[in-house]
Design a protein that fits this description.
Layout: E1 6-8, E2 27-37, H1 43-63, H2 69-74, H3 82-85, E3 89-104, E4 113-126, E5 137-141, E6 145-147, E7 154-158, E8 162-169, E9 175-179, E10 188-189, E11 195-197, H4 200-204, E12 209-211, E13 219-229, E14 240-241, H5 254-262, E15 269-279
Parallel strand pairs: 6-15, 9-14
Antiparallel strand pairs: 1-12, 2-4, 3-4, 5-7, 7-11, 8-9, 8-10, 8-13, 13-15
Length: about 280
């Protein structure tokens, strides 16, 4: 099946890796609720936001913290990524128990408000260790809204020497590996230097990064997940390569990736989520 997201071509390099730690997870199941206003958004979007609200509540309950707006800003997150980037824990499994649309009457408004409500069970894995305040990652896309077929470009700068991994999270929550892959093996990047991918030199060699709307849809919402590690990390073959526009459909999902990442101490990594939309012209 053709990968609806990216058509990639790469050059060959080589590197050696070591596997991540296999420490035992500290996990807990909790039952939580979440809500989202349905004003000016689609039912699908309201449902997603309500689930994220519930997952945030689950992390707060297990970690014993309050995830404030300042915390979210300091971790370079946006609403669609707050759960995955909270530095206290990650929801690695969930089961939706009930969901419905509730109508709330407010005497101060001319018409009632609609709220999307969910109740779910969540399995939360607590993060290990503490964030290294000197290990940060600056990253951005050339734009956040693309037209079908436009080229994407990443700009990345870490604050220390590290090893880079880039994942692509598709709309169905499946995960593709962009870097490393069978052709790009050397993922070392230097501190305080910008990495542009692909840069003009690479583009002249026919290497590009194009985005495409999922067949049958007008808008596709997906994410780039960038991780930098102090030591090389090998995720094995769990996540399919996002190469040459071919997607076999055998890749693992975001919940499997979260299990892998949460087992690596916070002090050993820096991470960024970059959400974007692809729209038909």
């Amino acid at each position: 099946m053709q990968n609806p997201l990216l058509l990639l071509t790469f050059i060959s390099l080589y590197f050696f890796t070591i596997p991540p730690s296999a420490a035992t997870e500290e996990v807990a199941w909790v039952t939580v609720e979440g809500n989202s206003s349905m004003e000016n958004i689609t039912k699908e979007e309201a449902r997603r936001l309500a689930i994220e609200d519930a997952e945030r509540n689950a992390v707060e309950q297990v970690a014993g913290v309050t995830v404030s707006a300042d915390t979210l800003v300091s971790n370079f997150t946006v609403s669609s990524d707050v759960i995955s980037a909270i530095p206290y824990g990650k929801v690695i499994e969930r089961e939706i128990l009930t969901e419905d649309i509730q109508v709330i009457k407010d005497e101060t408004k001319t018409r009632p408000s609609s709220i999307y409500h969910v109740k779910l069970k969540a399995k939360v894995a607590k993060e290990k260790g503490n964030i290294d305040p000197y290990f940060k990652l600056e990253a951005s896309l050339n734009r956040t809204v693309f037209k079908d077929g436009e080229e994407m470009q990443l700009k990345i700068k870490p604050t220390r020497d590290c090893y880079l991994t880039i994942f692509n999270i598709l709309e169905d929550d499946s995960v593709l590996t962009l870097i490393p892959n069978r052709h790009i093996r050397d993922t070392f990047i230097k501190a305080d230097e910008y990495l542009i991918f692909p840069d003009e030199g690479i583009k002249k060699m026919g290497i590009n990064l194009k985005v495409h709307v999922v067949e049958g849809k007008n808008i596709t919402k997906e994410k780039i997940y960038i991780l930098c590690f102090k030591q090389p990390v090998d995720f094995g073959n769990k996540f399919e390569e996002g190469l040459f526009g071919i997607y076999k459909g055998s890749s693992a999902f975001i919940k499997e990736l979260k299990r892998e990442v949460v087992d690596i101490p916070l002090s050993e990594r820096a991470e960024r989520f970059l959400p974007y939309e692809i729209r038909k012209e």
